[in-house]
Specification:
It contains 16 helices and three strands. The chain is mainly alpha-helical and 383 residues long. The chain folds into two domains: 213 residues, Citrate Synthase, domain 1, CATH 1.10.580.10; 104 residues, Cytochrome P450-Terp, domain 2 (Cytochrome p450-Terp, domain 2), CATH 1.10.230. A three-stranded antiparallel sheet has the order 1-2-3. The protein starts with 24 loop residues before the first strand and ends in a 21-residue tail after the last helix.
Length: 383
């Protein structure tokens, strides 16, 4: 009698493996939950400041708690002069430097002037988390303004976190729709359990290293185009399709079939967890279309193209878009430079990272998994 054995599960990349407990976030096929609140509920009814408090402090803020939390953030938005000067110098001397590398350097420099840097106690960690949350948009803004040949602007405490981010990047006060769309995108990107960058921060934190070091590691992990950089890559892909199909040289379907034949990886599609579609994608697409309709009607063509690409992917590959796909189109419609998409992701995900770093430090055991050795058999060096 022949015994049939099932093929072992592919666990590369820790696929399907549970590697720890968390009370920060829950992800499943139908829901993304931040500390008990579902993402669609938060996107519709909360602000990013409220979500930041929820993630970092651990509960929905009261009116007075939110006021105090917001005041703390606004008071910490400015960055030290030497950090600003270094960002400007990099923009001038190395204009092609990846913005994520620049942001990683800025966060590292901020560690040198944070009095709580080496203190991993709960109170100190919350103070550091709020400072990073407040200062990262300023760092992004200084870099982009310098690349544009403009003098950086001071953060504006009259603006919300999302609106201030846009102000720092452009020197122009955003309209209500732009600020709201940005706010929603920050909420959607704030947290996603043990994703690659968050797991990186927890591994670093588990060694009893400091929050700034862990965040620098998270930035490095998020930079990759299989993670945070996917929103940049998705928009670059759409620009390639638009260029190749304009004027009737080929159809979108023909472009896609060529990409399938060449086994080109099409960014912004598929997800390790969501096999039936990323519910964040529809939320952000709706807001992107709203912005296009009210502020930039010419940008509607990108959403139309995106819908066509999405339909072909679903028809031929049964693969749904993830949140990075509409994000690329939405940010592009708003005039945000593509290389800054992933730094903006950091401006959001810093909340989730810091929540996980604090959780790791509060109940720590160093993360040290085993490896399955597949190398050579034992040999004698003298043979």
């Amino acid at each position: 009698m022949t015994t049939v054995t099932s093929k072992p599960a592919d666990t590369r990349g820790l696929a399907g493996q549970s590697v720890g407990d968390t009370s920060v976030c829950s992800v499943n096929q139908t829901q993304l939950i931040y500390r008990g609140y579902e993402i669609a509920d938060l996107a519709a009814h909360a602000t990013f400041e409220e979500v930041s408090h929820l993630l970092l402090v651990g509960h929905k803020p009261s009116a007075s708690e939110l006021e105090a939390f917001d005041a703390d953030l606004k008071s910490e938005r400015c960055i030290p002069k030497h950090v600003q000067d270094e960002i400007i110098r990099i923009a001038k001397d190395s204009p092609d430097a990846h913005p994520m590398n620049v942001l990683r350097t800025a966060v590292s420099m901020l560690s040198h002037c944070d009095v709580d840097c080496e203190d991993n106690s709960a109170d100190a960690e919350l103070r550091k988390a709020k400072r990073l949350l407040a200062k990262i948009p300023t760092c992004i803004g200084v870099h982009q303004m310098s690349l544009d040949g403009k003098d950086p602007v001071a953060p504006d405490t009259s603006l919300s976190h999302a609106a201030n981010l846009l102000w720092c990047m452009s020197g122009e006060k955003p309209g209500d729709v732009a600020a709201k769309v940005t706010d929603v995108s920050l909420i959607l990107y704030a947290e996603h359990d043990f994703n690659a960058s968050t797991f990186t921060t927890r591994v670093i934190a588990s060694t009893n290293s400091d929050m700034h070091s862990a965040v620098c590691g998270g930035i490095g992990a998020l930079k990759g185009n299989l993670h945070g950089g996917a929103n940049e890559a998705a928009m670059d892909m759409l620009k390639d399709i638009m260029t190749d199909t304009e004027g009737g040289a080929m159809t979108v379907d023909e472009w896609m079939q060529r990409a399938f034949t060449e086994k080109r990886k099409l960014m912004g599609f598929g997800h390790r967890v969501y096999k039936n579609g990323d519910h964040r994608a529809g939320i952000l697409r709706t807001w992107g279309l709203k912005y296009a309709a009210e502020e930039n009607t010419a940008s509607k063509k990108w959403f139309d193209l995106g819908d066509e690409v999405q339909a072909i992917m679903l028809r031929d590959k049964n693969i749904h878009p993830n949140v990075d796909f509409p994000c690329g189109m939405t940010y592009f419609a708003m005039g945000i430079p593509v290389p800054q998409y992933t730094p903006i992701f950091v401006a959001s995900r810093i909340t989730g990272w810091c929540a996980h770093i604090m959780e790791q430090h509060a109940n720590n055991r160093i993360i040290r998994p085993l490896a399955h050795y597949v190398g050579r058999e034992l040999q004698n060096w003298r043979d």
